[in-house]
Amino acid sequence: MQPAKIGVGTFVIRNGKILLGKRIGADGAGSWGLPGGKLDTGERIEACARREVLEETGLELAQLVKCGFSDDIFTETGRHWVTIYFGTHCPSGEVRNLEPEFCERWDWFALDNLPQSLFLPLSNFLKDTNNRKAVTDLLAVD
């Protein structure tokens, strides 16, 4: 197995919905996941969350709230990821698909109507009651 990597995922919330992208080409191809990615050496976690969302969607984020983490092993590839999750409200700004080689498209989903095929770390994160409550609490103030 490869050494564990650290990633971030951000719940971008607008009008009571969460932004998800349909993944292409990497672990979880065909599944839906949050904007996010790998933490660079020397990079702060919140800076990584902001950078990844900006690079992938063109959205600039305001305040970030910590939501929790997931600890995931992709058995078929031997990859181990620890993902730290943030949430933010983003009431405006056009969502653009700036990395079409990694994401087929972006769409908004209600928490109670998510696609069946969720990216493994996101699926595992939402199975935890405390993590799911953190997201529900964020949605409640939108």
Helix content: 10-25%
Question: What is the tally of helical segments?
Answer: 3
**Which secondary-structure class do the elements indicate?**
alpha+beta
Output the helix-strand order: EEEEHEEEHH
What share of residues are in beta strands? 35-45%
Number of strands: 7
The CATH architecture designation is Alpha-Beta Complex
Query: Any idea of the CATH topology?
Result: Nucleoside Triphosphate Pyrophosphohydrolase
Report on the architecture of this protein.
The chain is α+β, with helices and mostly antiparallel strands and 142 residues long. It has one domain: Nucleoside Triphosphate Pyrophosphohydrolase (Alpha-Beta Complex), CATH 3.90.79.10. The chain contains 3 helices and 7 strands. The radius of gyration is 14 Å and the shape is globular.
Lay out the secondary structure.
Layout: E1 5-14, E2 17-23, E3 32-33, E4 36-38, H1 45-57, E5 65-74, E6 79-89, E7 103-109, H2 120-127, H3 129-140
Parallel strand pairs: 1-6
Antiparallel strand pairs: 1-2, 1-4, 2-3, 2-7, 5-6
Quick overview of this protein structure:
This protein is α+β, with helices and mostly antiparallel strands and 142 residues long. Helix content is 23%, strand content 35%.
Features of the shown structure:
single chain, 142 residues, alpha+beta, Nucleoside Triphosphate Pyrophosphohydrolase, seven-stranded mixed β-sheet, 3 helices
